Amino acid sequence: MAATFALKSTLRRSMLRTLRGMTDQDIERQSQAVFKILLDQPFFKQAKSVGCYLSMAHGELRTNGIVTHLLKRGTPLYTPYIPSLSPIPKPASSTETHSPSALSEATSEPKEEAEMRMFRLYSPDDLERCPLDKWGILDPGEYRRDVAVDDSPRENAMSSKSQPLDLILIPGVAFDEECNRLGRGKAYYDRFLASYTSTRPSPLLVAVALSPQILSTGERVPTTETDFRLDGVVSPEGIIWREGAEEKIGGKG
After folding, report:
1. Dist CA 218 CA 178 (whole Å)
2. SS3 68
3. Run of H or E residues at 241
4. How far is the C-alpha of 170 from the C-alpha of 207, rounded, in Å?
5. Distance CA 188, CA 178 (A)
6. Considering only CA atoms, which of 232, 196, 181, 229 is closest in space to residue 12?
7. What is the rounded average pLDDT of the residues 90-108?
8. What whole-number distance in Å separates Cα of residue 176 and Cα of residue 240?
9. How far apart are CA 190 and CA 108, in angstroms?
10. DSSP letter string over 123-138?
């Protein structure tokens, strides 16, 4: 196990250096290419409820176009949220929330690990009113920003009242041709998915990636038994599907 974590750490540092070296223009170009691929996919077009991360300004595939498109078409959209371990004032301006896309292995471990939630974004206006957090990521917070009521909590994807998620678009650091994923070392998605699928069917799990994040043929992401496996990975070069994912893809339309 220790050897696997060491391999993960080495690959993570190497890939993050590569991503930091990409120009904003190249990241934007590749992000638009991935968005266009998704627009052609039945699983994306027909998804009735979607989870998708809000991207960092640098070093990560940008989801701005995807998020705006889903909000405009009225698809229930849920985004990851890591609550601060200290109490957060009710609505608006706290920037001390944490994004799973921004936290890396270099972050010191908290004494108590907060759990990732997925909260609903309601409209383009709701998104537009979100401030940037300290990582430069839009921070929806726990309360809606597109209504006049000061205390209007966002719907939690884990709530029994929420519609089951059909699809989650997932970030990561590196991916291989068998749809294994290397995250940023905090296991937020692993724990969320384990909890979510204990009471509901698994959504289609599809990563969105920049070209350098896909390892060369024959290279593998180091994994442990607690790491979840993706159904597919979308990059500017196309889609890689996990062997056996066809049944889930068909189930999503």
Report:
1. 10
2. helix
3. strand 238-241
4. 4
5. 21
6. 181
7. 49
8. 9
9. 19
10. -HHHHHTPPB-TTS-B
Q: Which amino acid is at 24?
A: D
The CB-side HSE value for 179 (13 A sphere, CA atoms) comes to 19
| Dihedral sign for Cα atoms in the order 87, 91, 93, 99 | positive
Strand, helix or coil at 36?
helix
Q: Residue 231 pLDDT > 50, yes or no?
A: yes
Tokens for 75, please give them. Answer: 């698809």
Distance CA 154, CA 92 (A): 12
What is the pTM for the complete model shown?
0.88
Helix/strand/coil percentages in the chain, nearest 5: 30, 15, 55
Site of tokens 């992000």: 31
Q: Is 100 or 96 the better-scoring residue by pLDDT?
A: 100
Q: How confident is the model at residue 88 (pLDDT cuts 50, 70, 90)?
A: very low
Cα–Cα distance, 198 to 148 (Å, whole number): 36
Longest dimension (CA), the chain: 54
| Short-list 167, 234, 232, CA closest to 196 | 167
Pull the structure tokens for residue 246: 């066809």
In the block, residue with structure tokens 């990851």: 80
Strand partners, 156: 119
**DSSP code, position 156:** B
What single letter denotes the amino acid at residue 243? E
Distance CA 228, CA 119 (A): 21
